[in-house]
Design a protein that fits this description.
The chain is α/β, with parallel strands linked by helices. It has five helices and six strands, in the order βαβαβαβββαα. The chain has a single domain, classed as Maf protein. It is 30% helix and 23% strand. A six-stranded mixed beta sheet has the order 2-1-3-4-5-6.
């Protein structure tokens, strides 16, 4: 089992500034020094896995091995039931090389138009790896509905078109602190904290 100690340096295996910031905020109470793979100029490995877990583990191992520090990777995405779980593991790729999530959200909306079922979920897998390649992974999810048009400017990615169960505002309309408390990443994170901190 891979564990983390207070005061340790942890590489966040991502070049996505929004994701790095969100994970850094979640880790703030644990006295962990976070540095991103982007800050270390680490290459982004090709995500060749067929699942969120496979891709998260691949990224965590690559960053931990290259940096010599423990690394935490997140693979997450937006899964729409009527689209057989798409965009799923390809959520970022639907945004294209320019990371244009307006385009990605529009594409999902257009594909979903013929369907009455607007059920969707955000899924997140967090994987922690040490430099020896030992890994541990945790999955979180939050269910809700796809809405159109996009609303709000507080989130990133697909947040403006997702309303979680029990809410009437999108993830991009609610306060970031509230989103952190209920998000798919928060769900995975609470499992990670219970298991990985000494």
């Amino acid at each position: 089992m891979v564990k983390l100690n207070k005061g340790e340096t942890l590489v966040i295996a991502s070049h996505n500034k929004g994701k790095v910031k969100e994970i850094g905020e979640l880790l703030a109470p644990f006295d962990i020094t976070c540095i991103s793979a982007g800050d270390l100029d680490l290459d982004e490995p090709e995500e060749t896995g067929a699942t969120f877990t496979a891709n998260a583990e691949l990224k965590a191992v690559a960053a931990a091995t290259a940096s010599g520090h423990k690394a935490l990777a997140d693979d997450s995405g937006f899964a729409v039931r009527a689209l057989n779980g798409d965009p799923g593991i390809y959520s970022a790729r639907w945004a294209g090389p320019e990371k244009d999530f307006d385009l990605a959200m529009k594409t999902v909306h257009e594909k979903l138009e013929p369907f009455d079922d607007k059920a969707a979920a955000f899924i997140c897998v967090l994987s922690l790896s040490d430099p020896q390649g030992n890994t541990v992974s945790f999955e979180g999810r939050v269910d809700g509905q796809m809405v159109w048009p996009p609303r709000g400017d507080k989130g990133f990615g697909y947040d403006p078109v997702f309303v979680a169960e029990g809410y009437d505002k999108t993830f991009a309309e609610i306060d970031p602190a509230e989103k952190h408390a209920v998000s798919h990443r928060a769900d995975a994170f609470s499992k990670f904290v219970k298991s990985c901190f000494e």
